[in-house]
Design a protein that fits this description.
The complex is a heterodimer of chains A (292) and B (294). With 292 residues, chain A is mainly α. Chain A is built from 15 helices and two strands. Chain A has a two-stranded antiparallel ribbon. Chain B is an all-alpha fold and 294 residues long. The chains are: A mainly alpha (292), B mainly alpha (294). At the A-B interface, helix 1, helix 4, helix 5, helix 6 and helix 12 of A face helix 1, helix 3, helix 4, helix 5 and helix 6 of B.
């Protein structure tokens, strides 16, 4: 009887603890959404922060999009930052797949001289922190003029189109596909390329989707590299840089609700992506994501 | 036959080798050279070579501040986030209803933009002329968390860092706990072992490799802190006194006359690498005695 009571008590305590942490996680999201629908005048007259917007409005979202910053001809706007980020994300992820799929295939299926040594070299590159290579990459990109005009997109994209880790992940996956399939295809006279595209890629689709999603998340949240090479080049800012810039030079201090509207807009795409692909993302991260 | 494969294989690998060569291998060599080039003649050629950059960096009060901030942040956030994640993972593994909903919520910070949510944290803690902010209101205090005392700023930074790194740790620990063989628990229950004892003698040893993995990746991640601080205090971190080692490297390149101080930036980056490398090696040594690998 006492034991049963104890068990119930500990159950209640566990749920209480879990709910508390859930509230801590959710509260910033609640706060940003709630503030983003408050009237600016109402927000500014609150002496103590209010938990609920009394007259919800969407005008802050309109204001966030209307906002322009930078000098004439070198203007930035939230819409522009979104377009830049979408271009950056799509092209980087696409190019990365073109680079890593053939490389993983070569390591998994082809026999060639120096394979072991090269693979060991690739693996050792996984341990190199990006902070160590960013200085030279910055010099390279500036030296090639890839921080000016439309070349800027190349400067943003090129340094992040390879990932040794994803090559490794994909290679493991390709290797798990039975040799018999490959041999049968060779007998039928199927070329390696055709085999890769028609057999291996479709079979490995779950892993490929996971890699794509993880890369999209990474691209969407890029901040330090773009900041370094853009240095005030506002027309090419990505959303993270935009948020930072609006906060420091734009309406961040005067119009907090509009700032929160921008923050909601920037956060929303990834949250939707996560809710749709929840299991894939969590499985992918537990296999290879690192953060924190 | 073999020759043909050779050519083809290298062709498949060519894009990866090209990109890695230009953006990984060459920079690695270059950063070492940069760090040793001390001064330049008027025509841009190197005038002298030596360890002067390292001396300059180690004597720079901003670097010392950054080093101190980073170490404090690591010492606070790694144990706190790992311990808290373990508690939450244990809680999660002992319930059945709404477990999935909790897991989904807990993972959210992983997919959020750190600049965006960091800004929300800043407003929550911020004290302005008009209002002392939500956190002060809840605590009944009147503390300036963002522009005030050093330890208050450090507190907010630590809380935000923990909030950001928890999803990864909870996820990894939950799956580690789920993979412990249930037979051990059944056997322990038959023997009438208390739950505290079961945790100490079965759960902890079984998941110790995972905990250890999280501590290493936690150390590495925390030493590279930067964006979270920018999100909270803005990009002039030296002025706020909240810079980190990575921030110091970037500040050497950002907004500098002549395109940046590459020598000092490289020296600082190499010092960071040396610290992370040393701590990882120490951790690995330590784990060999303490961690049970099954």
């Amino acid at each position: 009887m006492i034991e049963k009571k104890n068990a119930r008590l500990s159950r209640v305590l566990i749920y209480f603890f879990l709910v508390i942490w859930a509230v801590i996680v959710l509260f910033p999201f609640y706060w940003m959404v709630m503030t983003s629908v408050k009237k600016t005048s109402a927000y500014d007259s609150e002496l103590t922060p209010k938990m609920i917007a009394e007259e919800p409005t969407l005008e802050n979202y309109e204001n966030a999009f209307k906002f322009r910053e930078g000098t004439q001809g070198k203007e930035g706007s939230l819409g522009r930052y979104f377009i830049n980020t979408i271009i950056f994300t799509v092209v980087t992820t696409g190019l990365m797949m073109l680079v890593i799929v053939p490389a993983a295939f070569a390591f998994a299926r082809l026999q060639f001289y120096g394979k072991k040594a090269l693979f060991a070299l690739f693996l050792s590159l996984m341990m190199i922190p990006s902070e160590l290579v960013i200085i030279t990459n910055y010099a390279t990109v500036v030296g090639l003029g890839m921080n000016k005009g439309n070349m800027t997109y190349l400067g943003l994209i090129l340094p992040s189109v390879t990932s040794v880790f994803y090559i490794y992940l994909l290679k493991e996956n390709f290797e798990a596909i039975p040799d018999e399939l490959y041999n049968a295809a060779r007998v039928d006279g199927t070329s390696d390329l055709k085999y890769l595209l028609k057999v291996m890629v479709p079979i490995s689709q779950p892993t490929i989707v996971t890699i794509v999603i993880l890369k999209v998340i990474e691209c969407w949240n890029s901040f330090v590299w773009p900041r370094l090479i853009l240095q005030g080049n506002k027309p090419y800012y990505l959303v993270s840089n935009g948020i930072q810039s609006i906060r420091e030079n734009g309406f961040g201090r005067q119009d907090v609700p509009a700032m929160m509207a921008a923050v909601v807009l920037v956060s929303l795409p990834l949250i939707v992506l996560f809710l749709v692909f929840r299991d894939k993302i969590m499985a992918g991260v537990s296999r290879g994501g690192t953060k924190g | 036959m073999k020759k043909k494969n050779n050519m083809k294989a290298w062709l498949y690998l060519l894009p990866a080798i090209l990109f890695l060569g230009v953006f990984m291998v060459y920079p690695l060599i270059d950063v070492c050279i940069y760090s040793l080039e001390e001064s330049y003649a008027a025509d841009g050629t190197v005038a002298s070579i030596g360890l002067g950059n390292f001396r300059d960096v180690l004597c720079d009060k901003f670097f010392i501040q950054a080093l101190k901030n980073t170490f404090i942040l690591v010492i606070i956030t790694v144990p706190l986030s790992t311990g808290l994640s373990l508690l939450i993972a244990l809680g999660l593994s002992s319930i059945k209803t709404v477990k999935k909903a909790f897991q989904t919520i807990y993972f959210l910070p992983y997919v959020t933009n750190t600049l965006a949510v960091g800004l929300v944290f800043m407003y929550l803690f911020d004290k302005t002329d008009r209002t002392s902010g939500l956190v002060n209101m809840l605590l009944g205090t009147d503390i300036d968390f963002i522009d005030g005392e050093y330890w208050m700023k450090m507190l907010v930074t630590s809380l935000y860092t923990v909030w950001i790194v928890m999803p990864f740790k909870i996820l990894i620990l939950t799956s580690a706990l789920a993979s412990v063989n249930q037979d051990y628990y059944k056997a322990a229950k038959v023997d009438g072992a208390s739950s505290a004892r079961i945790f100490r003698k079965i759960t902890l040893p079984m998941i110790s490799p995972t905990v250890f993995y999280l501590i290493i990746t936690g150390f590495i991640g925390a030493f590279k802190a930067y964006s979270d601080e920018v999100a909270l205090f803005g990009s002039k971190l030296n002025v706020a006194g909240m810079n980190t080692i990575v921030g110091y490297v970037y500040d050497m390149l950002y907004d500098q006359p002549g395109g940046g101080d590459f020598g000092n930036a490289s020296a600082a980056a190499l010092i960071l690498f040396a610290i992370v490398f040393t701590i990882t090696v120490i951790n690995l040594r330590f784990s060999r005695n303490k961690v049970q690998y099954m």
